[in-house]
């Protein structure tokens, strides 16, 4: 128990992980046109992101309220850290959707506060278990959209399965996936809910997973159905081919992959990257969220039990073997900008 506590508090004893801060735009110098569009991918921490293309603004699993070890071990109540949220959450007032891949507390717990206080215009897309949890908050009544898998890896994609995000040119495809064990083959906070809850959970173990989905997110052309940016998002590592998007004749622009617990599944993310050939690989959920939230590159540590260096080596092998691919491991607050010309 003491060893476990020590590891979780300190994170992996890895200093000098090659995390990046600030804004990076690898193609800004070469993709040039008058009507150039930009997709900004801001890492929020714990596998959460803010995606912005003009007025098309989405939050993915936003989580700022890093818990302490006692909370994570169910020895203390867990709740949103409003001070941290007020200090660190960027302006999300224009967000149209909050999309969550599974219902654990480090992806869903901050969503009610954010939806009611900062992203007041956003619909919430979450699995059925998560929607039963959020039913405890009457103020969110009309805003929660339960999602089911719309695509099963290896099958043929039917066009009608996409979920269109209202008032945007964005569509999402929820993909059947899974959640890797946390460590040593053990998975915590398993389970599903089938009934609306009366109150939001107060202990980490009560934020049960439900079904875990990956997402393909298309930012479409302003005037037609062409795809301008396609992003694959996972908030949990999975065995192949769970979580894989349908094969298409275009590369992914970005794969947002999950470092936490990657070694608990097979060949992650190697097979996913080989199939989708993303131009950019973004390593998320890599930092220790059992320590206070920080954006300080000197203070950030790897997520416990997850060997980020091994993951980086896997991603580097893909990047080396691919053409014009890059990877980054963003510090919370760091931004990757992608650019594209609508008319080629
Ligand atoms: Zn989880």
How is this structure best described in words?
With 344 residues, the chain is of the alpha/beta class. The chain has a single domain, classed as Metallo-beta-lactamase, Chain A, CATH 3.60.15. Helix content is 17%, strand content 24%. The chain has helices at residues 2-10, 69-72, 82-88, 105-108, 111-117, 128-134, 270-276, 308-321, and strands at residues 19-20, 23-24, 37-45, 48-53, 56-60, 97-99, 123-127, 144-147, 163-164, 170-176, 213-220, 227-233, 254-258, 280-284, 326-330, 335-340. It has an eight-stranded mixed beta sheet, with helices on one face. A hairpin with a 6-residue loop joins β11 (213-220) and β12 (227-233). The longest helix is centred in the last third of the chain and has 14 residues, at 308-321. It starts with a helix and ends with a strand. 46% of the residues are buried. Zinc ion is lined by residues 102, 104, 179, 236. Zinc ion (ZN) binds next to loops.
CATH superfamily: Ribonuclease Z/Hydroxyacylglutathione hydrolase-like
Kindly state the number of beta strands: 16
Tell me the number of helical segments per DSSP (H or I, 4 or more residues long).
8
From the alpha carbons, calculate the radius of gyration and give it in angstroms: 19 Å
CATH architecture identity: 4-Layer Sandwich
User: DSSP strand (E) fraction?
Assistant: 15-25%
**What form results from the Cα inertia axes?**
globular
The hetero molecules present are: zinc ion
Low-confidence stretches: 1-7
Number of domains: 1
